[in-house]
Amino acid sequence: MKRLKFLSVLLLLASGPKTQAQEQFTLKECFDYAIEHNQSLQKDRLGLETAAQSKRELIGSLLPQINASAGFTYNIDKPLVTMPNFISPMMGAMAPAGLPDYIAMTMSLDMSANWGASLTQQIVNLSLLNALKVTEATGEMAQIGIEATTNDIIAQTATFYYNVQVLQYAMTQFDESIALMDTTLNMMQVNREIGLVRQIDVDRITVAKTNLETQKSSMLQALEVQKNLLKLQMGFPMTEAIIIPEINLDEMENRLQTAASPGFDITVLPAYRILEQQKNLAGLQYKSALYETLPVLVLAANYSYNYTGNDFSGPSYHSFPVSMVSLNLKMPLFTGMSKNAKIKKAKIEMMKTDGDRETLEQSLTMAHSNARMQLEQQIRTIEAQRRNKDLAQEVFNVTEFNYGEGISSLSDVLNATSSLIEAQMNYVNALSSCMSAYIELKKTDGTIGEINQ
Asked: Which of 170, 188, 207, 355 has a CA 20 to 30 Å removed from the CA of 238?
């Protein structure tokens, strides 16, 4: 009976409410979330859509333009036309006396109506064709701008993501150090009770542990700040918790070693490609200024049907069609030298973009070279700090053992503990600087999008 009751309790507990573990966000998942929800990127996408609609608008102006019209007019007061009196000369002696030299005549009927359609087609208009190329270049620039914004989002997200991982690792180091201090403090308290150590020695350990816990509290606050910055960059709800997995040091150091390769292709960088498009746009603006001096040829056609009369029946009613086809040529002859000035100004802009490209090439090459050297230096630093941390750990272990054997003093233990904590924090700082250099190098060589691979 008791066994059945025990099984019932187990089943009840198993069927009760469960707390589901919150899923961790990998780096790729953070990228995907940020790219989908980042407001700056959404605004750039709208800019790309605007460029696409501008292209459609220009294409539409190159196609035939057809308009329809219709109208009805009722003349309440008919207009009069004044003209010389031609009746008297025609009638001669039969003309009645007293006729004026001018007479007024009604030249319209009571009602009129019409309907029709017109067509215009650009036959030769190089300015419009060039404007179409301008919209295409603008669309390509908008696309590259989206890529540049995406790279910035990835770089910022990766920076905050790695900062969180490094700070989480630092928190682990603090916990291990505090655990060591607790072990030492417990040992000291036992020895104090049996009279082997003084109370002041116990107090020194207590003070060191309190200082360490204070540093841990500050580090915890910094960790929460970095998490909030990561959520802000991702567009993640600030009120929800986000969990980032612990850093894999071996995998990360292998990735850092691989990233220090000297490969560099400036033509894939968004900044360089945007400048190339700006140069292309400057050339198109120059052509646009030239094309404004060339003739424009337009075909026009019109057809309409007209109705007029005092009513729409009877002898005054008439209806008739009207149609026409025309070919119109517009040729600029003199514009007060404004077109010439516009052409020269566009040519100057082309020369300026050439100078900008040379400056940008040097700047991007220098930035990549500096980033590569910085990463190589940080890799050497982190290797040295890792060896130093391992050595400090070994020194602490030996000193703690010797203290238990009565060989080392309390000061030796405190010094070894302080050195170990300092070595751990130096390694954390070196790791943080190395990750920043790694992100900067991936950004300067145009491979920031591969950072999660």
From this structure: 170
Enter the pTM of the model: 0.72
Handedness of CA 429, 431, 433, 439 (dihedral sign): negative
Sign of torsion over alpha carbons 367, 373, 375, 381 = negative
In this structure, are strands 80-84 and 102-106 parallel, antiparallel, or unpaired? Answer: antiparallel
What pLDDT is attached to residue 9? 33
Domains of the chain: 24-63+122-302+333-450 (1.20.1600.10)
- CA 265 and chain centroid, separation: 22
Q: Mean per-residue pLDDT for 322-339? A: 85
Residue partners of 267: CB distance under 8 A and separation at least 6: 273
Query: 51 is written with which tokens?
Result: 């460029």
Tokens of 236: 């993640």
Q: Kindly report the CA angle at 292 between 287 and 298, in degrees rounded to 5?
A: 120
* DSSP codes, 67-87: EEEEEEEE-SS--EEEEE--H
CB atoms within 10 A of CB 332: 11
* Cβ proximity of 195 and 432 under 8 Å: no
Tens of pLDDT, residues 253-288: 777 777 755 567 888 888 888 888 888 888 888 888
Q: In this structure, are residues 93 and 290 in contact, taking their beta carbons and an 8 Å threshold?
A: no
More confident residue, 400 or 26: 26
Does residue 118 contact residue 300 with C-beta atoms inside 8 Å?
Answer: yes
CB 197 within 8 A of CB 410: yes
Q: Please list, in sequence order, all residues whose beta carbon lies within 8 angstroms of the beta carbon of residue 318, skipping any fewer than 6 positions away.
A: 307, 308, 309
Q: Give, as one character, the DSSP assignment of residue 25.
A: P
